[in-house]
Amino acid sequence: MSLTDSLPLSMRYSITGSDAIPTKTTLSRFDSTSSSYNSASNNKILIPISAGDKFIDTSKGYLYFKVASNHTDADGANKAALVGNGAAIIEKLEIAVAGSSGKVESIDNYNVYHLYDELWKSNVNDLTYRQAVAGGGAAALESKALGVQLSETGASGNSVNVAIKLNCAFLNSYFNKAIPAGMNQFTIEITLASFDNAMVQMAAVDAPFTYTVSEVRYYAPCYQVLDEQIMSQYAQQVASQPIMWIGQSVNTITNAIAAAAGKQTLQINSSYRSLNGLCTLVRTSENLNTRTKNGLNAFNLTNISSYKYRIMSESMPPDDVDISSTNTCRSYIEASKVFAKHGETHSVCSAVSQTQWLADDDAANDSVGSGSLCVSLVKFSDERLVMQGLDTSATSAPSIIEINFSSAPSASTGLTLALHDRMFIHNPNGIVEAQF
Question: What pTM was computed for the model?
Answer without folding.
Answer: 0.92
